[in-house]
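Hi again,

Forgot to attach this to my earlier email, sorry! This is the prediction with iron/sulfur cluster bound. I've pasted everything inline since the attachment limit keeps bouncing my files.
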Amino acid sequence: MLTEPQKSKVLFLRLFFSENKEGRRCDFVEEHASGTPLTTGDRYLVKLLEFLHLWELGKDGGVHQPVITDYEGQLAKMYLYLTFSCPNRCWFCYADGGKRTCREMPAEDFARIIREGVDAGFESVVLLGGEPLVYSGFPQLVREIRNMDRGKTRIILRSSLSLPLSDELLGQICETFDRIVTSLDGDEQRHDSIRGIGKYARTMDNLRRGIALGKAEFSVNSVMSADDFSGEQGKHVRDLCDDLGIGRLTIQSPVPLGRAREYEGRRLYWKKTDDPLGLKAQELFRTSCGLGHNLYIEPDGKTYPCYAWCSPEHQLGDLSRESLAQLLSRKELLAVMNHGVDTNRKCKNCEVRYLCGGKCKIYVKDKHDIDSPDFDCEEKKAAILKDAETYSRFLYQTEKGE
Ligand code: SF4
Ligand code: SF4
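Structure tokens for the complex follow:
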């Protein structure tokens, strides 16, 4: 039995693999536009087709991303790093938390930037660090966010939850954030070997008390190798989330940045969600790794397109000295947004480019050329093709009624 996201992917593949002809794609889109009921009838497909309307069919019968000319509907996540301080020293910390120092803006500045993010239409603002709970202005910032009109923007906190939290502060956090993402890196022994003795018990205590309040949604991020994922450690966090009723769990391998810069293990990114209808069409149909749609803001206000694209030459501005509207008006972020799989010199001729979205800039050797083809993606491409084959076989069998 296929899950809803898998069904959508089947439909997607029907458009771009099994039915890879311009005429068929047009029929499919027109059927929807004329209001003919679709056999699947799910909101999911409608979302996908609405998304496809934004696309252009090229003379070669392929689809192409139109040039994006303004930010409307294009801004995804604003990552706001409150501090790089942290009581932990996880070996894989890409932010070099606890070791790296940086001037920190006052809470009023962070609050202003969040308001500006809401006004600009970001889907979500994510507060993180380091450990955001050790930022000295955190209680004041929480108070400001609680009273904020946040429109459609979700405000998310990412914390290790490994500090003692009073009932009062935990209650305020749960009432303020739309989602709280915390870290569990395996069983107690594994987690404590990474984060320190007693940290697992503390995080679990905070997590259980927070969930019991029934006010905020909680989710879990785990960092582990691909081998651990398929072994006892992966099973532990999956079972734990099931027991706690946590529907969103992301497991990913360390990325070669910060303290893990030498990490060479196989790349893993696995996501469980019990909210398939919440999965965005863009996640099924990708034009880039996301570069240009997010903002990475350091504690002192310096702003870049991504933590993997953050050398001085890529700095977009300084939000401690200017407003977000001023920064966006220079259109530098828009320019970055228009680089993706259709402009990358390796991806633009790749048949799986819209399923893949291209290679994360962490793994691109040339950090100056945004369309550099200087990366290895054989493993990634093989995995995508294998998925495509599986889904296509399923589709074929379904159509034959087998
Ligand atoms: S990964 Fe998180 S908890 Fe660990 S050192 Fe870095 S910021 Fe701190
Ligand atoms: S498989 Fe490789 S070449 Fe193809 S889109 Fe992905 S990163 Fe680019």
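Residues 86, 88-90, 93, 95, 97-98, 129-131, 160 surround iron/sulfur cluster (ligand 1) (CB under 6 Å). Confidence is low (pLDDT under 50) at residues 16-63, 275-282.

That should be everything now.

G.
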